[in-house]
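Per reviewer request, we include the raw input and output of the structure prediction for the construct analysed in the revised manuscript.
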Amino acid sequence: MPLLHRWITQFVVAFFALLSTFGTSLHALSGESAHLSALVNDSSSSLRFDYANDLELRLRRFKERSGYAIVIVVIPSGENERISELISRFFAANNLEQWGLAGTVLVLITVQEGWVIVEPSQKIEKKFLTTWAAERIENISESESAYREIALERRLQAVIEIIDPWLYELDSPSAKLDFAFSRSPTAEIILFPMAPVLGLMVGAALMAFTFAGGLRASGRFLVCGFVGCLITVVGAFLIRQRGGIAPGMLYYSAGMSFIISALVGVLKPFWFVETVRGRKPGEKMHPPFFGRG
């Protein structure tokens, strides 16, 4: 009996010690670690130090330009039944709703399971309710886990595409990655020569084939300019890459097409001469006999 009593006593002490340890860990996870001091929070130490610092600066610049705050939280592991509670504590403990004027997006990554959980603030939650939005952000695969920085960059690009499919305002990483991650500048390269060409073509077409050619100089300037700008913006939307277009290139394209198309319209008398077969430039036309022969 004394031996059995001692075993029972040791079992009870070990059980309460284990329960106390679990309670302490749970309190640490929901208490101290729920406090976020930056936009990039890597409690697992799985991101390289130089990359984490670079990403912090890039996300701060993105927040200033766009008004959206993207908060990255990387934890060693997570349990499915506590994830929603943990996210709620992150929002409540840090008042994340107010971090971004336009909205806040919390990106929670668990290293062990490879989960990627994205929780938007109430201002922008409707943007993330569609099926295609969920498909843009998938769990990190085993092949990606070895290059976690690149996997994170891809998820960030997907989040930005959901927030604003038009403009891409996140700088490229300056820290060297194991496999270089670069956003394709194809749209910007195409737009650079396409914008002035579109402006020229639109202006000429409006003067030759529409009623705009009979307007006064001011009317031709406005109609050609705005139509040329609109056509170029539509073209930019069609050729844009995932994540949008760099704002500077979009503004350049719209402005360049407006200026060239408007100049084509206002300078119509200097380059567009209405001629009919059998008539000299400047000669009056007398239908129905003029032009025969």
